[in-house]
Amino acid sequence: MSDARARLLARAARDIAPGMVVNLGIGLPTRVIDHLPPAFPVCLHSENGIAGIGPTLGYDAADRNLIDAGGAYVSTLPGTSYFDSATSFALVRGGRLDLTMLGAFEVSARGDLANWKIPGLFTPGIGGGMELAQKARQVTVLTTHLDRKGKSKIVPECTLPLTAQACVNRIITDMAVIDVTGDGLILRELRAGLTVGEVIAATSAPLTVPDGTLPEF
Q: Which of 47, 106, 157, 189 is an active site residue?
């Protein structure tokens, strides 16, 4: 893993507060668990039917029947519980999640999220991301700032099929922390070694930069 992605994940872990119920979405977000302190008091939820997920395990140490929604081998904790998909999504739809962290292909200036389909490429379907994005109390996107072609993922308007509209509260990338507000996108933090100008140049959507020195991560 690159240093930039490791910093992204470590920074995202800092947004998880003790006592929260948190869903870590498929892809990059599932790696956040490895950046939480040992025995951190949080309930991690996986939509395939687990609450109380422990650290990920390697192949040799894992119970290979026990995986999260992304297929990673996970461990259990005292109080870990299992349930069917109907119960799992009742928790989501009932607004029981304090926070969900999701990946993204695009995020718009008003917080629209596109993270399930790139036309012309295979996709297994929209899955649970649609409901997580709409029902969690806080939605944070974890993503690289640029796509593989070097284009910004933070855009004025999404061009890809939407997962949900105006759902994203915060974007954490390998370059910056950006909040989505009623007044637009606000740059909150920079990755160490980057300048405000570099982040603005890499972002298609307009960014508001507060006065003063920005914190680094």
A: 47
Contact 140, 99 (CB under 8 A): yes
Do the Cβ atoms of 157 and 166 come closer than 8 Å? no
In single-letter form, the type of residue at position 105 comes to F
CB of 22 within 8 A of CB of 100? yes
Global confidence as pTM:
0.95
Which H or E element spans position 133?
helix 129-135
Query: Quick check: 28 and 3 in contact, CB under 8 A?
Result: no
Q: pLDDT of 145-157, one tens digit each?
A: 999 999 999 999 9
Reference 157, options 200, 107, 207, 203; nearest CA is 107
HSE-CB at 214 with a 13 A cutoff on CA atoms is 22
Structure confidence by residue, pLDDT tens digits, 36-74: 999 999 999 999 999 999 999 999 999 999 999 889 999
47 in active site: yes
Average pLDDT, the chain: 96
How many other C-beta atoms lie within 10 A of the C-beta of residue 158?
Answer: 21
